[in-house]
Amino acid sequence: MTTEATTRRTPGAPCWVSLMVHDLATTEQFYSALFGWEFKPGPQHFGPYVRAYLHGREVAGIGELAPDRQLRVAWTTYLASDDADAAAEQIRGCGGTVAVGPLDADDEAGRMAIASDPQGSVFGLWQGKEMVGAALVGVPGAPVWNELVTRETGVTAFYEAVFGYETRPEGSVPDYLTLHLKGRPVAGVHGVGDALPRESGPHWVTYFAVSDTDAAVRRVTELGGQEVRAAQDTAYGRVATVADPEGAVFAVLQQPG
């Protein structure tokens, strides 16, 4: 499931993950204790925002919502783009919605937008300047995979049209497709039908690599988070779904070998 950092910068590939929360300081403490992240200030144009670092390299971003913004807290997967404005027009033309932007994140970083597909799954666009995306992937504590969980995989027609993905069925999992760019898998789409949680709706899920899934789940609960889906063995490793203390859902994956 791992994608190389260079592949993640290919237009259309997941390149960054970001989280907006109500209590930034408490959230920093949680992910620092869980993944060993350190934090440095990021762009402040839209409120307090930090970039998370692992082994001195950027892996994610976390911002703080304004007190009056009572939004559901969730990780957002950003897809790389060479031209965020053109991609936003394609999204609209293919039945999606652009809720924010495109706009400049700051003078140095790049241009971004927040959009959703025709079924309502939220994702970001990132047109990087100097910072083109996560600098570290696939190692414990860093992003390793991104997956769209939806009712049925027909929504991939939207992503194919906008981002040029090739889709391939994954035989070991029912109604599961992998999205490929330049012959490499970059993300997955899992159709779960009526098993889709009503409260979350269709959504993108970020997978973080860990060295021991069961230990990571225990640590999540010790730190005030919760286990959402128990650990299980898959063809790609041992995986569990968890949530942080504010309810942001993510997966932890212990890869084989």
From TrEMBL:
<feature type="domain" description="VOC">
    <location>
        <begin position="13"/>
        <end position="128"/>
    </location>
</feature>
<dbReference type="InterPro" id="IPR029068">
    <property type="entry name" value="Glyas_Bleomycin-R_OHBP_Dase"/>
</dbReference>
<feature type="domain" description="VOC">
    <location>
        <begin position="141"/>
        <end position="255"/>
    </location>
</feature>
<dbReference type="InterPro" id="IPR052164">
    <property type="entry name" value="Anthracycline_SecMetBiosynth"/>
</dbReference>
<dbReference type="InterPro" id="IPR037523">
    <property type="entry name" value="VOC_core"/>
</dbReference>
<protein>
    <recommendedName>
        <fullName>VOC domain-containing protein</fullName>
    </recommendedName>
</protein>
<dbReference type="Pfam" id="PF18029">
    <property type="entry name" value="Glyoxalase_6"/>
</dbReference>
<dbReference type="InterPro" id="IPR041581">
    <property type="entry name" value="Glyoxalase_6"/>
</dbReference>
